[in-house]
Amino acid sequence: MVVQKEFVARAHRIVWCTVATVGPDNRPRTRILHPLWELDDDLTGWIVTKATPIKVRHLAYSRYVSCSYWEPGHEVAVADCRAEWITDVATRRRVWELYRDAPAPLGYNFWGVFPEGPAGESPSLLRLAPYRLRLSDVETLSGRKEPLVWP
Fold it and tell me: Is 49 helix (H, G, I), strand (E, B) or coil?
């Protein structure tokens, strides 16, 4: 759990990450998104986003994404995950409340972006299930120490 706890601490401090998907043309596409992570018995990531045609097409082709966080001091946190769209309104409401209640800079009120709320047609929810985490920093990049990796 050490790697998972440090991953969540970094991710929630950095907040925004680059999320990469791959489509049917086998070409990657990246975008900047704002995941929120829950660590109980398992680590689960949540992303409130819009299900654009490119995201839908890419995730239909491959359910796998890579989430990469970086900050100017060169602390890096990467989560390789299986992603799935969640349509259950109760889960969507719960995740909106997690975002709303999280402290700044992680917290976010989506009502301004999606005025129809979590049950509306426009907002979508992605669940991320990590299968690999990697944490590195300036000492890792210089070869003075090994990155932290899970599993």
Answer: strand
